[in-house]
Amino acid sequence: MRLSRYFLPTLKEAPSDAQIVSHQLMLRAGMIKQEAAGIYAWLPLGLRVLNRIEQIVREEQERAGAVELLMPTLQLADLWRESGRYDAYGPEMLRITDRHERELLYGPTNEEMITDIFRSFVKSYKSLPLNLFHIQWKFRDERRPRFGVMRGREFLMKDAYSFDIDEASARRAYNRMFVAYLNTFARLGLKAVPMRADTGPIGGELSHEFIVLADTGESQVFCDKALVEMPAPGPDVDWNDLQSIVDGRTSLYAATEEMHDAAQFESQTAEGDRLSARGIEVGHIFYFGTKYSAPMKARVAGPDGVDTDVHMGSYGVGVSRLLGAIIEASHDDAGIIWPDAVAPFDVVVINLRANDPSVCEACEAAVDALEKAGKSVLYDDTDERPGGKFATADLIGIPWQLVIGPKGVAEGVVELKRRATGEKSTVPLAAALEAIG
Ligand code: 5CA
User: Fold this and answer.
1) What tens digit of pLDDT does each residue of 232-279 get?
2) Domain 345-436 has what CATH class?
3) Ligand 1 test: best mutation among 32, 321, 323, most atoms within 8 Å of CB?
4) Mind listing the UniProt keywords for this protein, alphabetically (predicted)?
5) Which residues form ligand 1's pocket by a CB distance below 6 Å?
6) Partner of 217 for a Cys bridge, out of 159, 232, 278, 378, CB 3.0 to 4.6 A?
């Protein structure tokens, strides 16, 4: 992608209403534009990262056995009346009336709709266990939308819903999502800690929030320090028996403020291991049994032929919020430092003299070689001065910078810089390509 043909509206200064660094950097890096409070347009650079995060979330859901579908953003109010949540949800729900005076709402979550889909088609325990997910925009009319995509009103969520014949099987579904979340956040370059949490308007008794520690986080959290550095289980686990992995985490103390029990924290955790910090909730998983299936009559025939209400759980990831969380965890004074797995481009090739045909030729050869090696490349072919180009490259956080100027062309070398460490080397193009991998 040639920068001269791209759309990257970077800003020198962040607007003064952007309070936290991730919001400031997303605006400055030309990733998003606010259209209304808590409602953002995703500009090309932001969209590339959003798509990459979404894809990693999708892959890990599928690995854990969940099946993707897509439900609409608009839902019928009557469906929510069946569960009793239409009135209970309150002013956070955006209510809409169509031309036939039918009451609709912009979905803040999808328990009712997925339960309706399930009951329409699934009649037997033989179809279970089943886990269906989608990645779809949600709307919550938050009282205080703030911090950019971190607490938006319109935001992208992955929400999965599991259906099982009984509680034991539903807990296995819960464990699969628990492990899938650990793997997902690790792939995104994040250290996310599962913590006992309040179930709020979704309901049920068992839930865990996945929290990324950050000073700018909205939640106060308490946990054993050991949880922060615990490596993710990875994909090679026995997906049918994850209890020991889950127990390995849940046996250590970790709770959000609403669930915090200071006495228990102190008795369970040695003083030096206690961590009290701020955190960002990037995911939340729930087991709520028959809370929706019973009133909505989502039943299947069991092995004995008797109909039973299915046991359900739901599992959310804040896909758009994750951009903010990743930036909070990975930036410096010069800008964003994208982890390789979610970077909008793998490499930026910086042409130091865009009016010099030999430099252009060398840059084009480098872009070509990188693309042939499967790398995505942003080629800064603009006629801006070098200082400005370096600043933009640092700001937008692309993991590798390949700098080519007349001197290097004369000597047959390029300058390679790793954004995360600032480490630079002057090497022949072939060596740079090898380092990039
Ligand atoms: N139905 C359940 C699970 S699918 C549910 O809605 N859970 S939730 O309310 O906890 O939301 C799931 C995730 O969405 C949260 O963990 C959070 O990461 C993200 N999220 C929630 N509200 C917002 C918001 N206003 N802006 C951005 N992300 C949000």
Assistant:
1) 999 999 999 999 999 999 999 999 999 999 999 999 999 999 999 999
2) alpha beta
3) 321
4) Aminoacyl-tRNA synthetase, ATP-binding, Cytoplasm, Ligase, Nucleotide-binding, Protein biosynthesis
5) 109, 111, 140, 142, 151-152, 155, 157, 159, 202, 281-284, 286, 314-316, 318, 320-321
6) 278
Q: Is the pLDDT of residue 374 over 90?
A: yes
pTM score, two decimals? 0.97
CA 351 / ligand 1 centre spacing (Å) = 42
Nearest CA to ligand 1 atom 17: 318
What is the mean pLDDT of the segment spanning 50-73? 98
Q: Looking at the CA of residue 157, tell me the nearest atom of ligand 1.
A: 14
Q: What is the dihedral of CA 182, 187, 193, 197, to 10 degrees?
A: -60
Per DSSP (E only), the strands in 53-205 are 67-68, 74-76, 94-97, 103-106, 130-139, 154-164, 192-196
Parse the chain into domains and list their residue ranges: 3-336, 345-436
Question: Could you tell me if residue 269 is left (phi over 0), alpha (psi between -120 and 50 degrees) or otherwise beta?
Answer: beta
Q: Which residues contact 222 (CB under 8 A, 6 or more apart)?
A: 253, 254, 255, 256, 257, 260, 265, 274, 275, 276
User: Can you tell me the distance from the alpha carbon of 356 to that of 366, in angstroms, rounded to the nearest whole number?
Assistant: 16
* Token digits of residue 79: 């469906």
Atom number in ligand 1 closest to CA 152: 26
Average pLDDT over residues 94-111: 98
Q: Residue 319 and residue 311: Cα distance in Å, rounded?
A: 26
- H helices of 76-133, in order, are 77-83, 85-88, 111-121
Confidence of residue 116 (pLDDT cuts 50, 70, 90): very high
**Whole-number Å distance between alpha carbons of 138 and 151:** 12
CATH architecture of 3-336: 2-Layer Sandwich (3.30)
Question: Could you read off the pLDDT of 274-301 as tens digits, one per residue?
Answer: 999 999 999 999 999 999 999 999 999 9
Give the helix, strand, coil percentages of the chain, each rounded to 5.
40, 30, 30
